[in-house]
Specification:
410 residues; five-stranded antiparallel beta sheet; binds flavin mononucleotide; EC 4.2.3.5; chorismate synthase activity; FMN binding; aromatic amino acid biosynthesis; lyase
């Protein structure tokens, strides 16, 4: 289905070349001041045609709010919004009338529905993510005002060009080839942790690649241009941090916080991988180094000394920064000829025309931020409703002390 979330429910609609794309957002709290500009900022960061590293499809992606607010204030009723598809060129896709694009969604959509949009990627197009980005911007506005929550994503690799080891997520740091050497000091560096605590969207947007390290960004730019010149494409990774999330979010079994994040992130087109905290690197680091030991902060609140967990333990947030990384494949639509087969089985060569992203990660950054905001918002509403329900009960004084949080030592 096209709906995500339990209490903050986002339904997106639209295909690549239909009249408009958009979303209905149900569950936004009433009384939130919201302007089109709050949403437009993120839509403009997602829109195509921002640089020579993205598709030249020229869409302004102006948001039109249809319902759910009056005089700039949300009513608590469903918010519906749309963005017109303006720069459509369906004729760019005539070859794909006959050929399913290798590794795109053409074949599987037809197998599933028995019918498909006549041009472009239809529903599988990244145009669909406009509704998510708009919904995420609304969630973010609430999260920022109510909790000071900040979400920043950035590009951490393009092809084999990675952030320097000191700034990279743990699993991107060079692996020690010595099987007997358990020392993991090279991973989870102070600089990476510092980057997570301080990085801003303004810093990320200074670079056309959205990699915040100038020298790496320049190499990534060259890598993307090389793919584009060869009528080819290249993949990459996006790392995201969520700051100031209260502890206690995440439902402990099937809707663990990290499971919901993974669901959200792997629903973004072109994603192939998700990892949180130490990720795959965590499989190599012995428990003695991987465990995040507790320490009380100045207010007596338990914090962790390290953050291999990525801010989530037992599927529940622990109040530390939540960080995760998503792998995006090389986009499927490339202009160079590919030996493949038509829908009817006839072998042939497909050279796809049309305007395409040689690498999706610079544009994926605001989409990742949006999906993260939607997950946090949904989990917050769930936890707050549980807490509100429990707060109406009289206190129980008969429980053994081991069953409740002890008074602070400090
Ligand atoms: C921001 C963004 C832009 C994209 N641009 C393109 C594109 O120009 N060409 C393309 O073939 N795929 C593009 N994709 C990916 C396709 O939407 C996606 O690969 C396709 O629907 C197949 O789905 P899958 O890769 O998730 O299996 C883009 C994805 C994102 C997130």
């Amino acid at each position: 289905m096209s709906t995500f979330g339990t209490l903050f429910r986002v339904t997106t609609y639209g295909e690549s070349h239909c009249a408009s794309v958009g979303a209905i957002i149900d569950g936004c709290p009433p009384g939130l001041e919201l302007s089109p500009q709050d949403i437009q900022v993120q839509l403009s960061r997602r829109r195509p045609g921002q640089s020579n590293l993205t598709t030249p499809r020229d869409e302004k992606d102006l948001v039109h709010l249809q319902s759910g607010l009056e005089l700039g204030v949300t009513l608590g009723t469903p918010i519906s919004l749309l963005v017109k598809n303006e720069d459509q060129r369906p004729h760019d896709y005539t070859e794909t009338d006959f050929y399913p694009r290798p590794s795109h969604a053409d074949y599987t959509y037809l197998e599933k529905y028995g019918i498909k949009a006549s041009s472009g990627g239809g529903r599988s197009s990244a145009r669909e993510t406009i509704g998510r980005v708009a919904a995420g911007a609304i969630a973010e506005k609430y999260l920022k005002i109510a909790y000071g929550i900040e979400i920043v994503a950035f590009v951490s690799s393009v092809g084999k060009v990675h952030l320097p080891a000191t700034l990279a997520p743990p699993s991107l740091t060079p692996q020690n080839p010595d099987e007997e050497d358990d020392n993991a000091q090279d991973a989870l560096s102070k600089d990476f942790i510092q980057l997570l605590s301080t990085i801003t969207r303004e810093e990320v947007d200074k670079m056309p690649t959205r990699c915040p390290h100038a020298e790496t960004s320049e190499r990534m730019t060259q890598r993307i241009i090389r793919a584009k010149s060869a009528q080819d494409s290249i993949g990459g990774t996006v790392t995201c941090v969520i700051r100031n999330v209260p502890s206690g979010l995440g439902e402990p079994v099937f809707d663990k916080f990290e499971a919901s994040l993974a669901h959200a992130m792997l629903s973004i087109p072109a994603t192939k991988a998700f990892e949180i905290g130490s990720g795959f690197r965590g499989t190599e680091v012995p428990g003695s180094q991987h465990n995040d030991q507790f320490v009380a902060d100045a207010n007596g609140r338990l914090r962790t000394v390290t953050n291999w967990s990525g801010g989530v333990q037992g599927g529940i947030t622990n109040g530390e920064n939540i960080y995760f990384r998503i792998g995006f494949k090389s986009p499927a639509t490339i202009s160079q000829p590919q030996e493949t087969a038509q829908y009817n089985g006839t072998p042939g060569s497909l050279s796809t025309r049309g305007r395409h992203d040689p690498c999706v990660v610079p544009r994926a950054v605001p989409i990742v931020e949006a999906m993260a905001a939607i997950v946090v918002m949904d989990q917050l509403l769930m936890q707050n409703s549980r807490k509100a329900a429990a707060s109406l009960l009289p206190p129980i004084t008969t429980l053994p002390p081991t069953m409740v949080m002890p008074k602070k030592a400090l």
